[in-house]
């Protein structure tokens, strides 16, 4: 028999592992750069005091002429005029509404008075004329007359049965 050679296992070489190692190295490098940058910024470096040797700041006078203040209208005045107009329109509307309300009330009162007058007129008693109907004719019957018979109650037997029960 021929024997086959035994397979020798080799470790996997995944791209994922390679990328993970690369990212870890990049991250550690960034952290180191940030730390060095922060250390550099933390160092104190004083600038020379130039202000002590310079002349103080003096603002230059303006060459523009002064502002001419003439005829102006404040916004509050415009607003007050608008508010007055609004108040006048509002009062006029309220007056119209009030007039319409009074008119409705007057009309309602008139309708109530008319209704009361109508109900009172209907409530007055008026005599009804006697109605004339055809007279009723009584016809004789073909059936024979009935004769009364006394009922045969069995009260004695009932009373006797009650006495025996006690």
UniProtKB/TrEMBL annotation:
Pfam families: TPX2. Its main location: cytoplasm. The keyword Repeat does not apply. It is found in: Cytoplasm, Cytoskeleton. Residues 72-146 form the TPX2 C-terminal domain. Keywords: Coiled coil, Cytoplasm, Cytoskeleton. This is TPX2 C-terminal domain-containing protein. It comes from the Eukaryota. GO terms for cellular component: microtubule; spindle. GO terms for biological process: regulation of mitotic spindle organization. Residues 83-117 form a coiled coil. InterPro entries: TPX2_C, TPX2_fam. Belongs to the TPX2 family.
């Amino acid at each position: 028999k021929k024997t086959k050679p035994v397979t020798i296992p080799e470790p996997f070489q995944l791209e994922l592992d390679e990328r993970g190692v690369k990212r870890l190295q990049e991250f550690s490098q960034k952290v180191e750069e940030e730390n060095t940058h922060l250390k550099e910024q933390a160092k104190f470096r004083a600038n020379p005091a130039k202000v002590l040797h310079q002349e103080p700041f003096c603002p230059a006078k303006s060459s523009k002429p002064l502002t001419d203040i003439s005829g102006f209208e404040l916004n509050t005045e415009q607003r007050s005029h608008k508010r007055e107009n609004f108040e006048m329109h509002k009062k006029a509307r309220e007056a119209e509404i009030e007039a319409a309300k009074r008119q409705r009330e007057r009309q309602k009162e008139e309708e109530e008075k008319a209704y009361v007058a109508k109900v009172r007129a209907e409530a007055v008693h008026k005599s009804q004329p006697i109605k004339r109907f055809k007279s009723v004719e009584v016809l004789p019957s073909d059936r024979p007359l009935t004769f009364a018979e006394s009922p045969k109650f069995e009260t004695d037997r009932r009373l006797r049965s009650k006495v025996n029960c006690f």
